[in-house]
Amino acid sequence: MTTEPILTTEEFNEQMRIRMEKRSRMLERGDEPYPVKPERTSSLAEIRKRFSQLEAGESTGEDVSVVGRVVFLRNTGKLCFATLQEGDGTRLQAMLSLAAVGEEPLADWKAVVDLGDHVQVAGEVISSRRGELSVMASGWKMASKALRPLPTLHAGVNEETRVRQRYVDLLVREEARQMVRTRAMITRSIRETLHARDYIEVETPILQLVHGGAAARPFETHVNAFDQKMTLRIALELYLKRAVVGGIDRVYEIGRIFRNEGVDSTHSPEFTMLECYEAYADQFVMADRMKEIVLNCADLLGSRQIETEAGTINLDGDWRWLGVYPGLSEAVGREITPETSRESLLAVAAEREVSVDPAWDEEKLVLELFSEIVEPTLVQPTFVYDYPPSAQPLARPHRNKPRLIEAWDLIIGGMERGTAFSELIDPVIQRERLTEQSRRAAAGDEEAMQLDEDFLRALEYGAPPMGGIGLGIDRLVMLFTAAGIRETILFPLLKPELG
């Protein structure tokens, strides 16, 4: 955007002081540095589109009024140049000549306008002698005075600043603006896919009396009106299932959820999930739904092949199904089954240098070993299924295989992107599962679910057999953009600034 060097603190403060003085001078003489609505007849993009064929040196005879942010300035004696930029990144040159704009407005431009200011320029659309589409100004006004100097395009914005001050990142990097557009396209595609399947979008409570629907530590808050402790939701699941009980057979929500856990390149305490539930479906129907969602996103973005450091991910063709126990057995070179002892699993962990808690039970050990040994190797789309029951307390027992449940995780690029179940609808078994979860919570497990009596009451009215999906929107964006989670979330949660 600019080629200025990085400003020292002293230089930055001096520029701030100078810009404040310019603002004050404008106010003193009766000029408005922040007018309510500057005159604007056309966007910069409209001008670019309408006059794209204009030859060098040609004039149109058409006057327009445009508004944009000044991202380049060159002031000479009798002719000044500025590059204006609008929100989508479109740029257009403005030219101010002594002959066309007059002596006082030209002098005022030189004295007042800085990089970063929004200005309104009125004049004729022309093509400069060098063929640059331009507005030859007959007049100009300040639209919004910037008090902080813009950073340089590359050197001026480090990663921490880009994430913490996303508005600056959006100003100077087209990649940042494209990320916003890409995420919006993905979200729109998901909605269109589900609407085509007759799903109904709903909204469910963010503040909840009982936390459930996932194994996660919640954020706690307090509702003064009820004098009641509550939590921010950790999942969308339990209220959406209540809707299915009530007859909304195909239902979904795209919503923010909150988990009071660690922060790294793939986890954020605040993130966006899609959850959808379909009556009379099972995990295999939901696998078809998930594949359709992902492929429609890929098609909208232009390719079913994704280039990554681990190689090309090909979303075309059949997606692999891999059982948890067979997958782990193949990876470690010995048979692992639901009957494998804890001692044997601890031995595998020691051999493979996987950090585990010796107190974990067999199911937890299997899940940890699979996550550390197998999951990172699954680059191509893979439905990992046939989990032990503790992996998903809200999933139905397997129809054919004792000691397993009907659930899968979709792994692409070595990372979980989403999950689905044949949902547990038996209120008796669900009560047993949630009671066990509540025991774990009482024993100090901060991620265990609570016993939700109202949810169980809903199931007791008779829930139809159903399948359900949970898909991390942020992780889907990460898949298509090869970016970390902090880049995919427009304004991610960050530590407070020091000082």
TrEMBL record:
Q: Which UniProt keywords apply?
A: Aminoacyl-tRNA synthetase, ATP-binding, Cytoplasm, Ligase, Magnesium, Metal-binding, Nucleotide-binding, Protein biosynthesis
The alphabetized list of GO BP terms reads: lysyl-tRNA aminoacylation
Q: Which InterPro entries match?
A: Aa-tRNA-synt_II, aa-tRNA-synth_II, aa-tRNA-synth_II/BPL/LPL, Lys-tRNA-ligase_II, Lys-tRNA-ligase_II_N, Lys-tRNA-synth_II_C, NA-bd_OB-fold, NA-bd_OB_tRNA
- What does the UniProt cofactor note say? Binds 3 Mg(2+) ions per subunit.
GO CC terms, sorted: cytosol
Binding-site residues for Mg(2+) 2, renumbered to this chain:
E416
The subcellular localization recorded is:
Cytoplasm
Which EC numbers characterise this protein's activity in its record? 6.1.1.6
Q: Which residues bind Mg(2+) 1?
A: D409, E416
Q: Which reaction does it catalyse?
A: tRNA(Lys) + L-lysine + ATP = L-lysyl-tRNA(Lys) + AMP + diphosphate
Spell out the Gene3D superfamilies in the cross-references: Bira Bifunctional Protein, Domain 2, Nucleic acid-binding proteins
| Segments forming domain Aminoacyl-transfer RNA synthetases class-II family profile | 186-496
Record Pfam families: tRNA-synt_2, tRNA_anti-codon
Which molecular-function annotations from GO does this UniProt entry contain?
ATP binding; lysine-tRNA ligase activity; magnesium ion binding; tRNA binding
Q: What cofactor is this protein dependent on? A: Mg(2+)
Instruction: Spell out the HAMAP family in the cross-references.
Output: Lys_tRNA_synth_class2 (MF_00252)
**The protein's name:** Lysine--tRNA ligase
Organism (species) = Arthrobacter subterraneus
